[in-house]
Amino acid sequence: MPSKRLRSVSSLNRIEILQVNDLTEADAGLWAAWRELRPELIGPYFDIRYVKAIGAVVPGARAARFYSEGQIAGYFAYQIRGGVLQPLGAPLSDYHTLIAAPGFTPDFNLLLEVAGAKRMDFQGWVGPMDPTAETAVLNRRAALTPEGFDAWYEHQDHEHHKFFKNVGRCERNIVKDFGGFDFTWERVTPEVMEWIVALKREQYKKTGLHDIFTCGWTRDVLISLASLPDEDYGLRAGVFRHEGKLVAAEISLMDRASVHLWFPAYDPAYYRYTVGIVLTMAIIRHLSPLGYTSFDFGTGGEDYKSPMTVSGGECLEGSLQYAPALSSRMVDLAVALLPARPQLEEARLSLRRRVNVIRSTEVSLGGWGRALMAMGQRAVMRLKPEKA
């Protein structure tokens, strides 16, 4: 098939659809220059190396090149799933946006038309969005260490002393019971990756969440990022070992000054030592003196995030509709069937997010059907009244 498609409303204002590997060095230069002009685009997801690395393995990966007045004005990397346009790498890509020249206003409806999509979904959009989109504001949580680890620790301990006191007790118990764990910050090896993925899959099974690794390509994304040779970009892991055995590990995506804490896992045998939190603390302690100033925890509401973080800025979750899509109407119908009671609003949002994860990862009808059936069975079990 041809590598490029082109549609436009005029010769001066148009959108060009590319295979990701068709992005040139000139594109990379514009991308980097525009990113530098937007301080909110801190983090490795906004680096063109992320797009190029995962674009080789994500099914249906594309890049839109926007033109204004005949000049290149912006880029957006995406994928299409069931008629819905999603940021490239969803659901793994926690943050995303249009990389564009200052003052450029994109025509998202034209993008949807050119891409052949009926709707755009996003969860972690940083920066301006089309005003007609339905959005909710999410808060990025980050440990910010521009003044070093000690200053960060002192401030967070002052605000959340009980939490940090408990972490300190766990650290002392690890030393007392095991003589401490060996910590390393290292490239992600196949051994570490497989260990983490196996534990995450077991966790998905226990919690009833969709296993994002069933589809195969999500694991390939991690492998591709781990294989990058760059010293200042790619996957790294903070690892605890005891007598050579893996105890805890956290895969992170990093660039030259920031770290996105991505896939944590730990041996359940060490649960009472809260080794996951202790490991995250070790990562921040180790990297802060090396010039890393931002450790992004994502937007989830886990209890451990608030004591360790402050706001790292806002982002948006939502959708932009072009025309009703069958799959979207089915999802909306499923959500609408839940009773409209305030106490169930959280369940509605959770259901929509779960469907979005399935849509993002499963690229075959069989995978999509099996995942939806499993989700439906779990929902029915939860809605059944408990026997007296």
Overall number of strands: 14
CATH architecture of the largest domain: 3-Layer(aba) Sandwich
CATH fold-type name of the largest domain:
Aminopeptidase
> Could you list the spans in which at least 5 consecutive residues all have pLDDT below 50?
323-340
Report the sheet-strand fraction. Answer: 25-35%
Query: Describe the biggest sheet?
Result: 14 strands, mixed
Which radius of gyration do the C-alpha atoms yield?
Answer: 22 Å
State the end-to-end distance: 62 Å
Order of helices and strands: EEHHEEEEHEEHHEHHEEEHEHEHHH
Helix amount, in percent? Answer: 25-40%
Shape call: globular
Number of helices: 12
Describe the structure.
This protein has 12 helices and 14 strands. It is an alpha+beta fold. It has 3 domains: about 5-140 and about 315-320, 3-Layer(aba) Sandwich (Aminopeptidase); about 145-290, Aminopeptidase (3-Layer(aba) Sandwich), CATH 3.40.630; about 325-385, no CATH class. Strands 1, 2, 3, 4, 5, 6, 7, 8, 9, 10, 11, 12, 13 and 14 form a 14-stranded mixed sheet that branches. About 35% of the residues are buried. Residues about 325-340 have low confidence and may be disordered.
